[in-house]
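Anyone able to model this chain together with magnesium ion?
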Amino acid sequence: MRLPSLSPSTAEAPSDRQRTLWWRTLAAAVALVGLLASSERLLSLAAEHLLEHDSEQTALGYARTITDNVPGLSEMFEQRRLDPATADALRGLREIGDVFRFKLFDRDGNTLLVSDALDRADGLDASGATRLGEHQGFPSPVVESIVLGGRNHIELKDGRGKEGRPPLFSEAYVPLMQGGRLIGAVEVYVDQTARAQRIREAFFQVACIVGVLLLIIGGALVWQWQHRQRERRLAHDRMRYLAQHDVLSGALNRASFHDALQQAAWRHESGGPGFAVLCIDLDRFKEVNDSHGHSAGDAVLREATERLRQVVRHGDVVARLGGDEFAIMQSGVADSADVDRLAQRLVDAMAVPFKIGEHRVVCTASVGAATFGSDANTIEDLLHKADVAMYRAKTSGRGRFSFYDAELDRKLEDRRVLAHDLRAAIDNGSLSLHYQPLFERADQRLIGYEALMRWSHPQRGAIAPSEFIPLAEDTGQIEVLGEWALQRACAEAATWPAPLSVSVNLSAAQFSGDSDLTRVVQTALDASGLSPRRLELEITESLLMNNTESVVNTLSKLSALGVRIAMDDFGTGYSSLAYLWRFPFDKVKIDRAFTIGLNDNRKVELIVRSIISLAHSMGIRVNAEGVETAPQMALLQELGCDELQGFLLGRPVPAHSLRHDGVVSEGPAAATRLPQSLRGLPPALQA
Ligand code: C2E
Ligand code: MG
Ligand code: MG
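re: yes, here you go
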């Protein structure tokens, strides 16, 4: 199955990622080149600075050497004449270390002497001294700034191609001080070729080391960044997956399924193919969980998802909407036959038993379908209608498929409204209990009443228990209703003369879930003060079909409280007798269906006779429900039935109509003794 592309805005396609990566790499390369260029410029600036500094220091040292070692220096500056001794000394200083030339200036900035000219002996005066140049008045602005401002001035020069000049040299102008007095300035020519070469080599080495370090650090940073990006992308992908999928089965979740449907709806509206939704609910999945444990339940859900995936076609979408509820979006639906075929494949696939460890579990599926466009025009409606169809499949026998049916939908809606009204029924007082008398056969004595719930709906009038009790069970309201009935019945019975008892019907749902039925019963007894011996609880055999052990456990606890337990509607189940030995019931109530057929069908009589005999042999009392005619009653008496109940003896009536001393005030002929009309029966029947 191919999952649909969902929320494309949040997804980054691989080619997009590749492109982004290329752009980033290019940007990083440009940045690196820029960095290298600017660092090269920085390095040459630093080198220049070093060379200038070195030249300045050399020149200053040189100036000190001149002033310290050259005799007649002041005279030379003052008189502008060069003594031979001074000339000799200066000649000796012409080339020291990297210095290869110098010039001397007087305080007015006039060139006094250039070292190259020291060998020339022109303009000698009488004493043999050389006459130096004329006064010109600051011909050199550099010297002027040194002399007036006391600042040094350094220039680096390229000597390549110039005769008598090294490839790189500096001209450093520094003051000449003697005895703390400025006597002039000296321009020192320093050969910087070797030093520049050394600096260059040192810088190159540093650059190499720094480059390698930068490469290592940069590489590590890039690796870490890439790693973090990859992890972030993986986390993002995982989060997106979790947000869109059901973790257990890997199918799409409800929200993503909704998105997929919405996209299909848009495509359909702009001329795209038709599509349908099939809702799938596993039948009796709860029993798998209850009897094999939750991990087995999970395994069934996973296997079910796999089967659904195998059944659908390319372009269809499988989703788990929650619990044991799945849905499929079938794409490319041309007509209902397409849906029908897929639904049949689904039902068949799920009908194969699931293998859980050693066990084989049958967990069929009920499937309901609705088609977009014909059944519904919105996604919400489509889902709702597929759900209604699924419900129909379930109620018509499970393990089958149904299309959406508007009539059923109306009934379901009606049921929903009724369930809503039922929720308010206890509070608004429209629920009540009626009581139907039970008679002892032997002495025709009134022995108690069965409490039967009644709902008088404000608009719809009386609603039968056969309608609202299953509704309360399905909508999870039965526990509240059952608790209320117990409290009400016990409180009422406590006002009756002893030993009249009350029988209260219990629903199977009251035994499951979280409710502690024993506590509920005990509370009702405590609150009313009714003796437990006067309370009887009626259960039906369907209760014992599932979870027998825990039900028997609860029944034992209830029995230990002192209340009696009766099995209601006996004989209507598939294997009534099988349940009789599982718990020591106090009473069985033969279902009305047997009472009806009693006089007309000899076989029914034989069955009833057998039930009574079997129950008696186990020490269990027998009640016959639905006694409507005198012949029925006569025969039941003859068969030895212990208790009688039916319209003939008294209909269910409200509590205020009960008269325990005589006749029930409403309904025909109900009395504490057998009704007058029956007294004329043959003595054998009255016995
Ligand atoms: P059930 O416990 O077997 O109650 C006997 C039903 O048979 C009552 O129907 C009663 O009115 C009816 N009945 C009694 N004698 C005759 C007769 O001679 N002829 C005919 N035709 N019917 C007779 P009802 O009150 O409609 O209750 C139906 C079922 O609803 C009850 O069957 C019981 O299973 C359930 N139910 C009623 N009240 C409660 C309740 O408080 N809690 C629970 N869990 N279920 C209740
Ligand atoms: Mg009953
Ligand atoms: Mg019954």
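Residues 268 and 274 are 6 Å apart (CA to CA).
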